[in-house]
Amino acid sequence: MKYIELRKNMKSSIFSLQDLKIMGLKVYPYQLSVWVKKAYLIKLKNGLYLFADKQDSILIEQLAFNIYQPSYISLEWALSGYGLIPEMVYNATSITSKTTREYKNDLGTFIYKHIKKELFFGYQKISKNNQIHLLAEPEKALLDYLYFNASKIKNKNDIEGLRLNNFNLQKLDKKKIKKYSKYFPLKYNIENILKLIF
Fold first, then answer.
1. Apex 91 CA angle, 173 and 81, nearest 5
2. How far apart are CA 62 and CA 75, in angstroms?
3. pLDDT given for residue 10 in this prediction
4. Residue 151: other Cβ atoms inside 10 A
């Protein structure tokens, strides 16, 4: 199959080897390698590709969602988006119920942190420019962040070291935070950490 035929047949910007099989498109691995070298395609990970001319219109969150599932955007990326931390974040950070993973490609680094299945909640489905991804609610993004940093938090000074935006923290739904925090294992002291914050 020629690249122009692939382009005509594949409506999605991102596609996998599985998609090619389902659609009955005969594309050989060496062809994909050639098209990556010619910069027609961007290899996101083994078996997953993006049409290079679509890279400016694709959302980082959409890429993160497609690269590793199930996953939802959370931690630093979500906190920065919600204005809960002041820093600009350059690597997409997600939560997964699968194994912790990190993928690097031409479009950036995509980090996935493992969480127990019973903690895989508190996210919403976002549809933007016909692209879908899952995003943690601000309250859950904060709790996920505290969960992964719990061992470093012992007192008020440690909380200050996290550089959380106090003004925006006060806008969060405290009832939701309290409800969600009960699902986290006691050994992480999430409820005690929250007392230091609020």
1. 30
2. 16
3. 94
4. 8
Contact 23, 11 (CB under 8 A): no
What CATH number is associated with residue 85? 3.30.460
Query: pTM higher than 0.85, yes or no?
Result: yes
The two three-digit tokens of residue 15, written as one number? 């596609």
**What are the pLDDT digits (tens) for 84-109?**
999 899 999 999 999 999 999 999 99
Of 88, 130, 95, the residue nearest 111 (C-alpha): 95
Same domain flag for 117 and 46: no
* Whether residue 67 is found in the same domain as residue 87: yes
Tally of domains within the chain: 2
- Structural domain containing residue 171: 60-197
Residue-wise burial string across 67-81, b where 16 or more C-beta atoms lie within 10 A, e elsewhere: bbeebbbbbbbbbbb
What whole-number distance in Å separates Cα of residue 7 and Cα of residue 186?
52
